[in-house]
Please model this.
Amino acid sequence: MVKRNSLIFLTAFGLLLTGCSKSGLEITKDDILEVARDDANATKSECENVSIKEQKGSYIVSFNTNGGSYEYKIGKDGIIKERSFKRGAKEETTETEKVEEPVKEEKSKTSKKEEEKSSTSFDEGQQQAINSALANSGLVQDDVSNITCSLDSNTNQYTVTFVLNDVTTTAVVDAATFTVISTILG
Model:
């Protein structure tokens, strides 16, 4: 009888230890989608064309809403690593064409000194790159000063620089997806 009770006790204790060893946090694809939707401030009914792809150590979540399309890279721990937002493709293309023509005319009329001074006037692509870089740092445009943005046509990347609390930050943003590739402080 004592052996039997001891055996039952040891078995129960072994099962308890087995259960405790698997207590690691396990996040499902539904949880990952909820994190992305919450960050985009979108409801389940607003999201269309939802895609969740598993990659090494993270998930890529993309979906469309009335406001545009979102893409997130979320770690398996549920933390957002990267995010990007695009307005509707038709709207973006149309506005980009309209904005580029006047900018070319202005460049031919203005001198180099005037171009450097008008650093607060950006085309739509530059503004999206700036917004992405600032959002990646948890900031808005009013928080920073001395914002500059330039496009490297060879790499198809924007370089965004800004100053916050006397610290210069430089961010490299992909021109196609407006995803922040790197950020350097100092």
